[in-house]
Amino acid sequence: MSRKEVPMRRSYAVQENIVLPGDTNMHNTMFGGLLMKHIDETAAISARRHSKCPVVTASNDGVHFHRPIQNDDIVKLESFVCSVGRTSMEVFIKISTEQSHTGDVELAAISYLTFVALGDDGKPTEVPLPVPDSDEEKLVHQDRATRKEMRLKKREETNALINSLSLSQS
Prior knowledge:
Blueprint lengths: L4 E3 L5 E6 L13 H20 L3 E11 L7 E12 L3 E12 L5 E13 L11 E3 L3 H8 L1 H21 L6
Parallel strand pairs: 1-7
Antiparallel strand pairs: 2-4, 3-6, 4-5, 5-6
């Protein structure tokens, strides 16, 4: 039996926010942790839309900044599922900024997160295959094997480190 296929656009999600003074650090740029929260929320929506299941975050490959996000910028996060394993989904997030006084839009950052779909029993469950349609979807989809290989290598390194660490008793 072959797996169901669904268009990537089915998982598309958008979140927009204005960066307020309380959202910024002493450099007048957005707190990275706040942006990561928005990234995780938006990506989770994409993963849920794709799988039609509850999901949990398995990993975040990091946020790769291209430019700072300033106070008073309008931040737009766009995400979609770009690749899957059997039960896992890789979600691509594109973060852009709009300067509210000029309307200029620039790419600020990108990120990839991995989510696992959960069935009614709370255990990982199979997800459909994503099918790219737009040029952007195809571009992001084409390097999926390389990203997966790097992610698996990083997981091995992290597991080796965790197994070598000890917990101190205070």
